[in-house]
Amino acid sequence: MIHTSLVCQGCSGTLYAVSIRGAGAALPTWEVDHDHSPASCPLRPLLPLEGTAAHIRELSDADHVLTRPA
Asked: Model's pTM, two decimal places?
């Protein structure tokens, strides 16, 4: 599944998120990163966000990287 409309708090750039749920996996595995890696983003060291979670906002550092939903 591909998610859109995510914005980086550090540079206001667009982020992509991809989740994959393997056979028998209880939770999906996520990857979140910039669509285009801006060299000037102060949060670049935190990306990509990767991990297993029920929701994208449960990933480690998601509160620091993702803007709040409108």
From this structure: 0.83
